[in-house]
Amino acid sequence: MTIKTAYFNGVATLEIARPEKKNALTLAMYDVLAQGLLAAQANDAVRAILITGQPGIFTSGNDLEDFMARPPQGPESPVYRFMQALIDTDKPVIAAVTGAAIGIGTTLLLHCDFVYASDEARLALPFVSLGLVPEFASSLLLAQRIGAGRAAEKLLLGDPFSAPEAQELGLVNAVLPPNEVVVHARRVAERFNALPLAAVQASKRLMRAPQRQAVQAALAEEGRVFAERLRSPEAREAFQAFFEKRAPNFSHLG
Fold this sequence. Notes:
By secondary structure, the chain is an alpha/beta fold. It has helices at 27-42, 64-69, 78-88, 104-107, 138-146, 148-157, 163-169, 181-190, 197-230, 233-244; strands at residues 3-8, 11-16, 48-52, 56-59, 93-97, 99-102, 114-118, 122-124, 161-162, 174-176. It has a six-stranded mixed beta sheet with strand order 1-2-3-5-7-10, with helices on both faces. The chain is globular and about 60 Å long. The relative contact order is 0.14.
């Protein structure tokens, strides 16, 4: 199993568990994640949702071989159903970033309410280097969160950054030793057992409401351009270079 789902003490835990592939996400895994979020949202016994990975790795992003074999095709694709489920849930979502968080491993954090990261974690948004564009409304939300200039560094240059830098940017609530990240995140999640659920949900909806329409618009436009970019010569060169373990050469492409 590559996604482990568990319910304990009011917390639904979605654990990415594919360490032999650096927790790379397949369409089947996105499907399970989407179902897990929807089930947690519908379960009155669940007060909070915890998303975590394995020691040393949160997720390396999409499994590129699986992704290219079955690219996302519109809103019914598992990846978009996962995105929408995470956007739509009004229960608190806590992320325990246990290690490297690449691509969607970083963009999904923009939709979590609390993010706790290992001091060994590295984050990166390498979409442009793959001939692609940002996703999960990150072209909107990242600039809102950290400012346009620093968002350009992360989204256009794709430079990786550390968990302490992510905390300084406001993307992470706290940075902890590796063996304390999940424990601390679960402790925060369990605090919602003592709080009135309806009030928590209403408050989260109010907090998200002012930009909900903009997030949906960004998600749709990013998806449209992303699909176009997947068919581009630049993306083909980037993916071929990845599989051949060489540096891509974009100099001959317009």
